[in-house]
Amino acid sequence: MVEAIEALFPGLGTSTYRVTSAASRDYNCIAWAAEDTRHWWWPDLDPDNDAIFWPRGVALEETLDAFAAVFATRGYVACSGEELEPGFERIALFAKAGAPTHAARQLASGRWTSKLGLREDIEHDLHAVSGDLYGTVVLLLKRPLSAASL
Amino acid sequence: MSSVPVNTAENVEQHVARLLKRWREETAYLSSSTRILGHPAYQELIALGPAALPFLFRDLQQTGDGHLSKALAAITGAHPVPAAERGQVRKIAETWLRWARENGYRW
User: Fold this and answer.
1) How far off is chain A from B51, nearest CA to CA, in Å?
2) Global pTM value
3) Is B77 helix (H, G, I), strand (E, B) or coil?
4) CB contact under 8 A, B27 and A62
5) Looking at the partner chain, which of A8, A52, A119 has a beta carbon nearest the beta carbon of B86?
6) In tens digits, what is the pLDDT along chain B, a chain of 107 residues?
7) Which has the closest alpha carbon to A45: A65, A28, A59, A26?
8) Please, which residues bridge with residue A124 across strands?
9) Phi, psi at A35, each rounded to 5°
10) Prediction ipTM score
């Protein structure tokens, strides 16, 4: 499994990371960034697709604006800088060719946590999951820790 | 449901198993439902039609993988998942299995 992860994310092979959960089909990276392990978050207009949750009122679009709006419902606003900032927590949105692919959430340690698709959660350096699959970090969001109960 | 000859059923079973394996291997690290459910193997599962249902229900029972919901809806035309369960992958699997039993499917 470790070999599979590092083959897909070469940056993990040259940095320190650890697997922090078992694999789960129940939630994805967007849900994990939003601290929800009960739903699979993704926009889809197809009524046949029941296996997705998307907050009411947010555009059902695979756009950065829509994904930023999702996290705005949780109190996040756009910011610059990925360093740990006392009193705030951050989310990083990844995109490839302009389409959102992944989200990671910053931990109190300053490192980042990601749910890798249908697989495990990992703790990692932010850019270690950049690459062919997820593209790169294109947007950083933050909220005060006091908003974490939203 | 009409009965399916044994040999054909075995072939369909193997076909479904192969498609499910490929689909899961090649989408394992994706979060995008669009890409996961748009995968060619998933689309091929849908194209197999009703003959695939017993094997999809068996897989659903073994894996709890509610991401099969779209394929099941496309094949059966049914929409048994209530709005309150949207996005809850395991619950969706349970709802589909209940619907399948109530509608006479065996696997």
Assistant:
1) 19
2) 0.92
3) coil
4) no
5) A52
6) 444 444 555 599 999 999 999 999 999 999 999 999 999 999 999 999 999 999 999 999 999 999 999 999 999 999 999 999 999 999 999 999 999 999 999 99
7) A59
8) A112
9) 60, 40
10) 0.92
- With beta carbons under 8 A apart, name residues in chain B contacting A48: 69-70, 73-74, 79
Instruction: Determine phi and psi for A4, rounding to 5 degrees.
Output: -65, -45
Nearest to A96 by CA among B34, B62, B78: B34
DSSP character for A95?
Answer: E
Per 3-state DSSP, what percentage of chain B is helix, strand, and coil (rounded to 5)?
75, 0, 25
Give CA separation, A149 vs A54, A73, A77, B21, B47, in Å: 19, 12, 16, 39, 45
Of A43, A77, A75, A72, the residue nearest A59 (C-alpha): A43
| Type of residue found at A51 | A
Whether B16 and B48 have beta carbons less than 8 Å apart is answered as yes
3-state secondary structure (DSSP) of residue A77? strand
**How far from A87 is each of A113, A131, A146, B37, CA to CA, in Å?**
18, 30, 8, 39
- Is there a contact between A1 and A111 (Cβ–Cβ < 8 Å)? no
